[in-house]
Inverse folding.
């Protein structure tokens, strides 16, 4: 490890993905340990962590359009839904009520991202024309129109209240739906999904990091800070806003495709307003406009209910004794956390982590 | 023709109720530059408080009604003081998201209280006439709708007089023009902020009653109807009270016409709009209008400087 990690001798070094060896070391350690977790942890934890990883992909998507490019998007959940249904149609099994083509994961996973991105591009002319609060309100309209489509296109979604099964897990023609045997070692479906999610998360996470340091990322930041000034500097607002929306939708679509595959099925009512707001909460709690923030936020969102559930179970209270259910406690705490983080720590969990890190960098000297 | 008149009347009444919520939005937006996503939750809170006092505590409806309205106003005041005041000067996006947080909080508490069974308001309207409605020139008119229309018109009139004549009304208009200049003129801007949220709360509670009164009842989905004031505001323009009223009427009429004519349209053009299209129709209208006029019908065009 270098002795002066903050000393950069060239711009190339400063913007590199891992500016110093410490970060490389932690990245590799975390990656290896998360692969190792897959083989020692119980199913419960594997599913939980898979969820957290996938939610963080979706949150990264929202973070690109809202945190980096500064465009309010209240409809991210709808794009997650579009990805979900693309995957369910392409990879799912056809029944009497719904269509399905039973394709390979290598086909439906990228396609669910691309279809979501295409729909994002389709609506981008509307989104680009508006800005600020009006944009937020129009995206609110997307939520309602989107859920209307979801609940009425029954041949795709199975209709509200009924839902449909998600995509099957076939990779390169090999059926992983009931686990896969290598020699006498059996890999469960959950473990495979976990590994796929981990791979996709790492790839897309590095993608965000890469995007931030590229020309496009700088253009996003300029648009966020002052779009008129950005335009005066020669940034094509239309192009970059549409790009931001498309990339964001791609992330949402990919996340949605894998998310429902872990659950096994999906009901169109899932993609309501609250679902979209959830991602906003995750981005705010994690830290808007940062690369690691959404990851923190997603893990917080997924692990927090598990902790509440654990506390409720271990405190020997039956559900009737409590005034409110664990889900409601969850939602109350989410509402409170949105408010408190915005007032006291706008940089979210990432901000707290940043300050802790800087404190211990020079420990025990405060400066 | 009768169906048309019936739909028009219901639409107007609905629109008048939405306009109360919409005016609340616009007031808050103009004075404090905050787009309050918590406003629909306030509507439901108002209805909830009225229902609680009149059906569970059992005080006379009219007392419960005014108590509920005042308390909702006070809630608005408290919310502004505790959550919104620290955010003065922050980016509009952050503040808007913060109001979403408030909205979640209010709705969780309320959803928990409402539960599965719909709550009645305890109002006398269903007992009037023939199940709360009477016949007029072949139309079925609900007493609740008539009252809603009249009350809304009266409130709009009172508000416009308040803004023109009263000391605080003028102070509010000054604040919405320029906060710092108003401060320099000796206007207590903080108090104006509080007052705006108070009035918005009052209006929300009025609307809350008319949305959930009679046989409509208060359920977990009442919130969705209250949310329809949002497209109304956007159609009219975020900063125009006239726009809010016009936008609300457009939304109300759209909803009523779609509700009555959806089947005819579907069979005439052989298309399928889907169940519950009347809920989505306002948002589609909002879409179309925003594509043509991004600032809404009556909104002032934003002049931007670098």
């Amino acid at each position: 490890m270098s002795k002066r990690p903050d000393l950069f001798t060239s711009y190339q070094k400063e913007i590199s993905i891992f500016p110093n060896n410490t970060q490389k070391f932690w990245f590799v350690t975390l990656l290896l340990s998360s692969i190792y977790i897959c083989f020692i942890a119980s199913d419960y934890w594997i599913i939980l962590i898979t969820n957290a990883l996938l939610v963080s992909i979706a949150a990264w998507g929202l973070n690109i359009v809202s945190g980096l490019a500064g465009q309010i998007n209240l409809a991210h959940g709808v794009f997650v839904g579009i990805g979900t249904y693309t995957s369910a149609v392409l990879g799912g099994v056809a029944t009497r009520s719904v269509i399905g083509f039973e394709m390979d994961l290598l086909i439906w996973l990228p396609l669910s991202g691309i279809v979501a991105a295409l729909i994002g591009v389709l609506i981008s002319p509307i989104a680009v024309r508006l800005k600020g609060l009006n944009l937020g309100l129009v995206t609110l309209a997307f939520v309602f129109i989107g859920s209307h489509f979801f609940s009425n296109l029954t041949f795709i979604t199975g209709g509200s209240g009924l839902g449909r099964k998600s995509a099957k897990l076939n990779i390169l023609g090999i059926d992983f739906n009931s686990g896969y045997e290598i020699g006498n070692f059996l890999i469960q479906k959950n473990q495979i999904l976990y590994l796929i999610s981990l791979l996709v998360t790492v790839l897309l996470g590095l993608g965000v990091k890469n995007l931030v340091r590229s020309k496009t990322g700088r253009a996003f930041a300029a648009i966020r800070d002052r779009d008129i000034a950005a335009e005066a500097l020669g940034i094509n607002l239309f192009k970059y806003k549409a790009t931001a929306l498309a990339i964001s939708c791609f992330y949402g679509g990919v996340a949605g495709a894998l998310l429902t595959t872990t659950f096994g099925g999906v009901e169109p009512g899932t993609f309501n307003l609250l679902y979209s707001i959830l991602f906003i909460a995750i981005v705010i709690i994690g830290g808007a406009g940062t690369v690691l923030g959404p990851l923190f936020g997603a893990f917080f969102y997924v692990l927090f209910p598990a902790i509440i559930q654990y506390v409720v179970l271990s405190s020997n209270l039956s559900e009737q004794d409590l005034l409110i259910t664990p889900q409601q406690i969850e939602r109350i705490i989410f509402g409170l956390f949105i408010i408190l983080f915005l007032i006291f720590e706008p940089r979210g969990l990432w901000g707290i982590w940043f300050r802790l890190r800087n404190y211990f960098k020079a420990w025990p000297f405060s400066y | 023709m009768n169906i048309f008149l019936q739909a028009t009347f219901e639409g107007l009444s609905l629109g008048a109720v939405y306009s109360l919520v919409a005016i609340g939005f616009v007031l808050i937006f103009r004075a404090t530059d905050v787009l309050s996503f918590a406003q629909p939750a306030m509507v439901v809170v108002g209805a909830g408080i009225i229902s609680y006092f009149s059906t569970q505590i059992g005080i006379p409806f009219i007392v419960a009604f005014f108590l509920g309205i005042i308390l909702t106003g006070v809630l608005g005041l408290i919310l502004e003081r505790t959550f919104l005041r620290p955010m003065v000067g922050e980016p509009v996006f952050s503040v808007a998201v913060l109001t979403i947080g408030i909205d979640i909080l209010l709705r969780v508490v309320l959803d928990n209280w409402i539960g599965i069974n719909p709550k009645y308001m305890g109002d006398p309207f269903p007992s009037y006439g023939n199940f709360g409605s009477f016949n007029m020139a072949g139309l079925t008119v609900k007493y609740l709708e008539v009252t809603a229309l009249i009350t809304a018109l009266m409130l709009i009139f009172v508000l416009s007089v308040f803004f023109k004549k009263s000391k605080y009304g003028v102070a509010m208009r000054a604040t919405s023009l320029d906060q710092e200049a108003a401060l320099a003129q000796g206007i207590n801007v903080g108090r104006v902020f509080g007052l705006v949220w108070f009035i918005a709360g009052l209006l929300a509670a009025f609307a809350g009653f008319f949305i959930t009164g009679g046989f409509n009842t208060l359920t977990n989905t009442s919130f969705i109807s209250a949310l329809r004031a949002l497209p109304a505001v956007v159609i009219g323009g975020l900063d125009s009270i006239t726009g809010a009223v016009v936008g609300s009427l457009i939304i109300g009429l759209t909803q009523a016409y779609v509700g009555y004519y959806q089947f005819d349209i579907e069979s005439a053009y052989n298309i399928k709009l889907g169940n519950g299209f009347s809920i989505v129709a306002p948002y589609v209208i909002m879409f179309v209008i925003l594509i043509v006029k991004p600032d809404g019908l009556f909104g002032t065009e934003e002049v931007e400087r670098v």
Q: What stands out?
A: DSSP finds twelve helices and two strands in chain B.
